[in-house]
Design goal:
6 helices
């Protein structure tokens, strides 16, 4: 892995750490409230972030991860907390998934960042390009989480 790729994983870990640090100030109750005018809550945003990174990698590599199928029904595009059931990961569980994800992605894909695949959306054809896109996506959802939290307080 070259220095640029190491920097990418440092950024993934750093931005995720910022999100997790902020979540220390969010209660389980707050995480589950859907404020008036919003479609989702903080908990949904966390599950969506976890899922999204893997879905984009899966879309690129065509390597299916059956474990993600269940996350799709709760956190996939177009879902909401109305899709939650007793099996849906809790706020605390989602924070643990998110904390482990950067290392898991690095371990699983770190040596494959430059591997080329047929292009998908926006011309992305490497895992490195997909991860850059997921950093942007995480920032959007972090802002949504901040907005929901501000609205609740």
């Amino acid at each position: 892995m070259n220095q640029r790729q190491e920097n990418l994983f440092e950024q993934l870990a750093h931005y995720r750490s910022e999100l997790l640090h902020f979540l220390e100030h969010v209660s389980e109750e707050e995480a589950n409230i859907i404020p008036t005018g919003f479609h989702n809550n903080i908990r949904w945003n966390l599950g969506h972030l976890f899922l999204d990174q893997y879905l984009w990698i899966e879309a690129l590599t065509k390597e299916k991860d059956a474990e993600l199928d269940v996350f799709m029904k709760w956190f996939g595009f177009g879902t909401s907390p109305n899709h939650f059931d007793k099996e849906t990961p809790t706020f605390e569980e989602l924070k643990k998934y998110l904390a482990r994800q950067p290392d898991q992605v690095k371990e699983r894909y770190g040596e494959r960042l430059a591997e080329e695949f047929p292009p998908i959306d926006m011309g992305m054809q490497t895992i490195e390009q997909v991860l850059l896109r997921t950093i942007f996506h995480e920032g959007l959802h972090f802002q949504a989480i901040l907005t929901i939290h501000r609205f609740l307080n």
